[in-house]
Amino acid sequence: MHDTDTSDLIRRTIRSVPDWPQPGVTFRDITPVLQDPHTFRRLIDVFVYRYMRQRLDLVACVDARGFIIGSALAYELNLGFVPVRKRGKLPFDTVSEEFVLEYGSATVEMHTDSVRPGQRVLLVDDLIATGGTMTAAIKLLQRLGANVLEAAAIIDLPELGGSKLIRDTGTPLFTICQFLESERG
Description:
This protein has about 180 residues and is α/β, with parallel strands linked by helices. The protein is about 35% helix and about 35% strand. Keywords: Cytoplasm, Glycosyltransferase, Purine salvage, Transferase.
């Protein structure tokens, strides 16, 4: 199902917003993909067809846009959903992982009982930039004993190094499309 036509449709539907959130940055906005029912369904179908025959136990998703894709995917695959949240958002006992951003640091957390040792997990987010958030999520899942079978995202920004960082953890990575920095709009 991950055909060129679907990838092109999704890529064309993503809105590029120049100079947001700061000058020199082009934000890749998935909102138009979510707003169009045909494109949103095709997006989810790409992931469903990729993972429907794999033996997975859970879909873990990164706060917050990853929740949109991951919850629909978990539902379609009849799997549980595990949120990886920003610090301070989960009400029960948590395990946390700090990571470096281009402008500082941040922390993500998971409930200590969100995965069991040996569970096979797919990790989902909307976009791979520097890879810090997803790499931290991989570390959290592994610390709790999960086997992260693959990380997946809609968009890869390969020039920012995140996809390489994720692959360097030994975790396979699947993305639907990529944007280069030279593509401003």
